[in-house]
Design a protein that fits this description.
Blueprint: E1 4-6, E2 14-18, E3 23-30, H1 35-49, E4 56-66, H2 68-86, E5 90-98, H3 102-114, E6 119-124
Parallel strand pairs: 3-4, 4-5, 5-6
Antiparallel strand pairs: 1-2, 2-3
């Protein structure tokens, strides 16, 4: 399976999914015109990855901001990761937030409450 890499723009995040290392990253801002269309290739990629995942998958989410439609798509990604976790593979989600960004911390906690995958809240201090 080929790794997937998309360079971020002012409206879309940088996304790196590497099936060879099991290290996935979403970083930047997520306010695409059409979030479903933007995230579909990544959801599909995870659907394929979950058939034969590595024993450990580490996901780092380093978003500055995301809109409501992106949040639904991110939840879809997390559901794919949850399926990998339920199949007895280790999945770790590192949710990064700036020390004064209560909204981003809360968003991570909300996802953690929905998805049955271990989250680590990672405070970024400036």
């Amino acid at each position: 399976m080929e790794p997937i890499f998309i360079e971020g723009t002012p409206k879309t995040p940088t996304i790196k999914f590497d099936s060879k290392t099991g290290i996935f990253e979403i970083k930047g801002r997520s306010i695409p015109e059409n979030a479903i269309e933007f995230y579909k290739p990544f959801v599909d990629w995870l659907e394929t990855y979950k058939v034969d995942p590595l024993s450990k998958t580490v996901v780092s989410i380093k978003l500055e901001y995301f809109n409501t439609s992106s949040s639904k798509c991110i939840l879809e990604l997390f559901k794919k990761l949850e399926a990998i976790h339920k199949a007895k593979n280790e999945v770790e989600i590192n949710w990064y937030y700036e020390e004064d960004d209560e909204d981003m911390l809360e968003a991570g906690e909300d996802y953690e409450a929905i998805i049955r995958v271990p989250f680590k809240m990672m405070e970024i201090t400036m």
